[in-house]
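The protein record passed on for reference:
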Amino acid sequence: MRNALRRGRLGASSFDEMKQIYKITYPTGTIYVGKDSVGSSRYFCSPDIDLVNADFRNLPADQQLDYTVRKQILWESQDATEAELSTKEVEMILAHRSNAPHIGYNRWPKFNPDRHARGSNYAKRHFIPSPMRMPTRFARSHPHDG
């Protein structure tokens, strides 16, 4: 029973820790990209609660009482280091533009409209070492990418 309580995701034991980068989508359409060092299915992130609450107040009353929050795993690795996990998190924040106030709740790295105007390749060329690039099978599109 104790081992069952320690299981993090899909039956994996705590000894099979899976580092993950995830995207949370709130009912407002606003997103948050975060990291999890152990791959817990119960961990949902830590955006600024005041920002989330302010957005929720703009939802219709019935939707404030019955809503769904979606968690998507964008990338995972059993052997990535904490440094690699942090680097991948920044890559995903920039790729999904979740640090742009009109798109997401991430406030770091600080949103720079000029950086985003240059396109998603800017993040790959300037922030991410080439061995860390995400395999194509993990690529996801973002609903705000017109």
In short: The chain has six helices and three strands. The chain has one domain: 2-138.
